[in-house]
Amino acid sequence: MEGVGTIVDGSWCDEFAHLNDRLPHEPLALPQINSTCRVVLVRHGQSTWNAEGRMQGCSDISVLTEKGQGQAAKTRDMLMNVKYDALHHSPLKRAAETAQIVWGDGRDGSPVHVHASLREIDLYTFQGLLKNEGVEKYPDEYALWKDTPADFAVDVGNRVHRPVVELWYRGSLAWQHVLENADGGVAESRLVVAHNAINQAMICTALGLPPRFFRKVLQSNAAASALTFSPASEEGGQVGVSVGAINATPGVRSLRPRSGAPAQVLLVRHVDVDSKDGYAEASRVAVLLRKCSVSTVCACTSRNTLTTAGALVEELRAKPPPIGSFVTSAETLDDLEGGESLLRTKSARLLVMENLAAPEGEAWERSSEAWAALCEEADAAPIGSSLVAFASAEVIAAIVCRALGVEDSQAPATIASLQGDMPYGALSCILRPKGGTEGFLRCYNTGTV
Predict the structure, then answer these.
(1) Between vectors from CA 7 to CA 6 and to CA 12, what angle results, nearest 5°?
(2) What angle, 0 to 180 degrees and rounded to 10, lies between the N-to-C axes of helices 363-380 and 411-419?
(3) Which of 186, 208, 369, 371 is 20 to 30 Å from the Cα of 216, by its Cα?
(4) Whole-prediction pTM value?
């Protein structure tokens, strides 16, 4: 197909070939910075090739559909109160158009940067193929692409390329460009508009996660993620990374269960019931979750988690969902504070799970048991429903790491990055196949960008 690149003299030839950045190298370390920098990553809206089911890669043929333009406008509205000092975007048309919509007007004088490192993953001879064409033309390679993408390889003339491994290097290269000059001593905020795969690579390389995490951190069309970078505590040390949100979308788009899919797991940080707005915040979360086909509510016996969970159950009892949307069993725990009044409902089950509680610093050790219990409950829940678990920030971060398959050596740093910016009432969603022990992060701290 014209415009997607071709093989010339045994090498892949396209507009980016001269950059020599298609390298199977280890990712670069984050650049040293002297001031805090918050980065909001946005994926482009739906493109014409998204709608057709074509593999786009770094080709530049597709443009935004009308739906994609609308998605970008909704994301602009979601981010309207966020101030940016600069815009960085991919050179590809679908990202550039999204950037123009999200960036909006009234930012005269703010710098705009276009970086080739922010282009989508290089898929070489797969670019432009419909997915069924990929299966037919390259059955073995396509199977790797779907099942173990980090091992996916494309034979291009005189060279074998490993697209996901190369992407991880390029994601780290993009951070060198985006975080450049974050040294003015004043906190900054930057908007980055790019693509699904490169956004995944940037998030994962910032957290120190290897290429096998490709597709474990979902990036929906026009969704936003936010990371805050802080200077290293000592010269030459590691730059601090704190996750504000991943794959956040307006409203509850990223929270509603998928029709016909196994029950999803929603993790919610409990509210502080002793704060001025604690009970109001619990009610807000309950109203939001009411739209998510909740079948089971899980909490430990701490006052904060039980009260937050109770607000949800009260909301479901006061405004019952349509018949058939929820399981119709209930449990009463009269020995718990307020238990009987909170739990007497036929719209959802409330389970007390003590493994959702952990002393500070012990969340990772206890998360294995907690995640296994949540998986068991999710497997028993109705198809197309949500299991909601209320816990502390550290416990939620640990469960997310456990669900994604983070190794013991990497867990402490990843948990620290994930829990750092988690506000009360933040919602996260994990998808998993029925019976599976590992899952995919659909969203994290959604609604908090």
Answers:
(1) 85
(2) 70
(3) 369
(4) 0.92
